[in-house]
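User: Reviewer 2 asked us to show a designed sequence for the structure in our supplementary figure. I'm pasting the structure tokens here. Could you produce the per-position amino acids so we can include them in the response letter?
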């Protein structure tokens, strides 16, 4: 007989716990966070370190989860406690990213160093200190709630020196030139540059600008800066950074094209900005921030304050950093690719409907370098199925498409057109395009 798995083991029905019974459980669970809070309150926000903020974010994450497990979100007495912990969690995560950026900004290779030093850096510092003031007032409000609820707030403090070493101040020499096999005969650096240009172009569609009017600020937060939107951009930037570190860093292409490091620097700066934007947009969208007041009746961290940091600091600065680096990316793309144009005739009996167009897009996205498609003077990105469908729909009698891009992408497109754009079945697809054939199983 198979022994029961803890994964499938049923839990007993949950019983309602009285508030007085819950208090000692909460006090025990929160003890380390409260001592960490005392360590913070001994200092001014300008003295806090990124390591302290990281620990505060982690400790408050654990405690918020604990409170949610006990249903504090639906309990009148402990709802405020739960929300204060949530404010600590997300605001400390945001401040941590900004403090980390402020500390590391001089180490990034970037394009517009004067703007970084004279505009971005002071703005990041100001925004971080604004969050620090809110965190400090939130900690004091939590302490007041704790004591008013009859729970004991500890006297001991967990200070920065107790949080573990900050890391070694030495490193080994970087002298390993790792040679990696070339994938799909496409330059990994060219693929990365293409992704960078695509990422920057997404900002151009909704170019951010400075907003002071409160009504407009709320409108923009709701339309363009929702948590899922910020998280998606953060993820795209993080993926770009990961590709660089996995495929480019330390390799011959990086040595041959040192300007690649400027793309890495721009991605790093933008990532830290959007880490903060994501955390703050979560607070904006999921919590009624204007309803939580400190002991003086002042909003701890208001929606307008959040919106100004997300839009005027994070979004605008990330846009500027990426946009100013596009010129470098364009030059790199010229160095790393061999751009040519080819006019490919649509095979007899084949029409440009969704299936063949999706294969064209798959080829282009496999190489990840920009390719332009042109039909009778109309142009669009060959990496976008929607743009291609719209353009093809406007030319129902089209006989050929002109493509402009890296020769390696165009070589594969030529093979695809020779194979009737896949309309004769995947068994007729040449082995060079095996990446188009769906895997079985």
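Assistant: Here is a per-position design you can include in the supplement:
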């Amino acid at each position: 007989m198979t022994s029961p798995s803890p994964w499938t083991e049923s839990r007993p029905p949950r019983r309602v716990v009285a508030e007085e019974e819950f208090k000692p459980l909460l006090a025990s669970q929160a003890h380390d966070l409260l001592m960490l809070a005392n360590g913070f309150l001994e200092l001014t926000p300008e003295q806090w370190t990124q390591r302290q903020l990281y620990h505060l974010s982690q400790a408050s994450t654990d405690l918020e989860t604990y409170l949610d497990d006990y249903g504090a979100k639906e309990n009148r007495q402990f709802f405020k406690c739960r929300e204060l912990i949530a404010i600590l969690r997300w605001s400390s995560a945001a401040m941590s990213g900004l403090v980390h950026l402020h500390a590391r900004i001089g180490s990034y290779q970037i394009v517009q160093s004067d703007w970084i030093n004279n505009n971005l850096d002071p703005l990041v510092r100001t925004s971080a200190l604004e969050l620090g003031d809110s965190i400090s007032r939130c900690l004091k409000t939590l302490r007041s709630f704790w004591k008013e609820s009859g729970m004991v707030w500890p006297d001991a403090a967990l200070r920065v020196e107790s949080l573990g070493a900050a890391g070694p101040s030495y490193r080994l020499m970087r002298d390993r030139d790792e040679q990696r096999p070339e994938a799909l005969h496409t330059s990994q650096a060219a693929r990365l540059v293409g992704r960078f240009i695509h990422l920057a172009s997404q900002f151009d569609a909704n170019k951010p600008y400075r907003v002071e009017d409160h009504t407009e600020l709320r409108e923009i937060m709701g339309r363009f800066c929702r948590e899922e939107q910020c998280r998606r951009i953060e993820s795209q930037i993080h993926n770009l950074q990961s590709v660089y570190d996995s495929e480019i860093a330390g390799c011959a292409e990086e040595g041959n094209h040192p300007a690649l490091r400027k793309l890495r620097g721009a991605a790093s700066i933008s990532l830290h900005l959007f880490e903060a934007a994501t955390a703050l947009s979560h607070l904006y969208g999921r919590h009624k921030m204007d309803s939580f007041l400190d002991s003086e009746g002042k909003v701890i961290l208001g929606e307008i304050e959040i919106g100004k940091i997300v839009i005027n600091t994070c979004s605008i600065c990330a846009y500027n950093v990426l946009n100013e680096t596009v010129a470098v990316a364009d030059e790199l793309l010229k160095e790393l690719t061999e751009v040519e144009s080819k006019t490919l005739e649509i095979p007899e009996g084949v029409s440009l409907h969704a299936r063949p167009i999706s294969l064209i897009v798959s080829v282009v996205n496999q190489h990840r370098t920009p390719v332009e498609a042109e039909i009778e003077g109309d142009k669009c990105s060959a990496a976008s199925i929607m743009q291609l469908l719209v353009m093809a729909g406007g030319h129902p009698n089209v006989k050929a498409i002109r493509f402009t891009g890296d020769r390696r992408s165009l070589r594969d497109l030529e093979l695809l057109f020779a194979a009737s754009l896949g309309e004769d079945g995947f068994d007729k697809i040449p082995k060079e395009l095996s990446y188009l054939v769906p895997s079985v199983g």
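For the response letter, you might also mention the following. The chain has two domains: 19-161+198-334, 340-436. The chain has a mean pLDDT of 91.
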